[in-house]
Structures are given as structure tokens and as C-alpha cells.
Write the C-alpha cells for this entry.
Amino acid sequence: MVDVFYPMQWVADKVTYDLLGIEATTGLAKSLNFIIYDVLKIFALLSVMIFLIAYMRSYITPEKSRRILGGKKGPIYNVAASLVGTVTPFCSCSSVPIFIGFIEAGVPLGVTFSFLITSPLVNEAAIAVLWATLGFKATALYVVSGVVIGVVGGYIIGLLKLERYVADFVYKVHSLPFKEAEMGSRQRLDYAVEEVKSIVGKIWIYVIIGVSLGGIFHGFAPEGILAQYAGKDNLLAVPVAVLIGVPLYSNVMGLIPVVESLIGKGLPIGTSLAFLMSVTAVSLPEMIILKKVLNNELIILFVTIVAVAVIFTGYMFNAVL
């Protein structure tokens, strides 16, 4: 099978060993080679993934999403909301305007939460970086579990009929009439190219910082140090990783290369991805922002459902992988 990332590895080897003449067995060589290879690989896959998904997303405008999901209940609409969330480039702190917009448009609370959970958890940039660093199998499991967590979490919240815990003003917001403009093929291509420029332009620094941190750990941390304290034999490793991740807030693109390096040093994949998902899906800043529109009871329930689902997913990943 042809290694599509071979040119990136060739460049990394050339720069590290030939151009700079660093001895291959040193920690510096391992770190630098890791950084060059991962940066090139991530940006290449990132650009391709963003372009393809942005082109598809040009057919799925926010207004169309609201029309499809508005007033509809049932598991199939939770699935639809989660799938829409996977192709929207929103971070967790974009949640308030999205939340208000969906509720105002008549989208049921549970269906809205399915979108709210999945949107920051699974997006094209995260998929590209994860695929470039951990491979297709881990990426596929991450995406599927992210969608499932969104579907199950939103469906449970919908069953509990918790609309009374949403601030009254949310139901009183009225948006202006929206007229959708149809795009031609050329406009869709231009839109996809602009999305690549926009998203890469916003996250490139996080990728470089994250890869650099991961590279330093990759080259200098003792082998197996994490497996000793957070390996599969430690039954509390996954919930501890989630508890550590929930209060944090980090750009997922910068965090994934660090997680890759941690896995390389012995941290189980399930524990690593549980930490990654907890940081992304239920960050403390997101909860502070959501406090503007949700009562404490609903926020606590939301965090609990997602945290439990992520912990279960972490254990499942450790068993499967």
C-alpha cells in the first residue's frame, strides 16, 4: 500500500539528518523529526478535509438545518442534529447564539442538545488532525462515539422535558426573516477555498504549538512513564482523565498532537481520547457562557450525561484498541 504521507517523512528526515546533521538516536532528532513530519502531514490533510466538507456544507445552510429539525421529535432527529453538528465549524463557546437560534426556530430542546454536544466534539478540522496523527481506526471510533454521545445525551434530555430550566427570554427572541441565496458551482468552490484559508488561518498557531509540545515529550520523556501510572491496569485512569479535562479549555487542534505523543509514551488510546473529548465537549468556559441561558440544574445534568458517556467511551476504546 502506498504511504501518502511518505513525502512529509522524506522532508522531515532530510531536514533533521542531512541538512542539520543531527544524530538520529538523540532526543533532539526524535523531537525535531516528529515536529516537522506532523506539521506537514496535519496541514496537508487539514486543507483537503476542510475543502471537501466545506463544499458539502455549502448545501446545508443554518436555515435549512432549522427547517429540517424545527418542531420535530424522535431519535431520528437527534441523529440528524448530531450529523449536522459534525459538519459545522463551531467551538464550544459558540454555543449560546446557536442554542438561542435553534430554540427560537422551534427545534426541540433535546434535539438542540444533540447538536450542541456533537458540534464542538466532532468537526472537519479535528477529524483531519486526528486522522493525521492517530490513523483512520481511532478517528472513525472517535467520530462514531461523538455522534452517539450527542444522540443519546440529547435524547435523554428531551425525554426529561426540561424546557422549564431554559431562560424565558430565549423563547421570546424573534429573528428577522432570512432569504437564502442559491450558490452556483463556482461559488461553492470559492466558498470551500475561503473556508480553508479562514480555518487554517485561525488554528495554524495552535497546531504548531501542540505539535511542538508533543514533539518535546516524544523525544525526551522516558518510555512507559505514563503506562506505569495511567495504564489499562489502573481502573480509575479514564474517569480521572475526564475529571482533569472538564475544567480545561484548549483548542482541539493543538491538543491532539500532544495526545498522540502521550499515546506513544504508553498512555492507552481510550484514556487519551476520553481526556480529549472531555476538554472539547464540556469545557468550563462553555458552562459559564451557557449559564446565561440555562439554569444550574440543566447545566449539571448536561455535564453529567456527557461526562459519563465519555468515560464509558474511554473504557470501550481501551477494550477495543
User: Anything to note?
Assistant: Residues 174-180 have pLDDT under 50 and may be disordered. Residues 15 and 21 are 8 Å apart (CA to CA). The chain is about 75% helix and 0% strand.
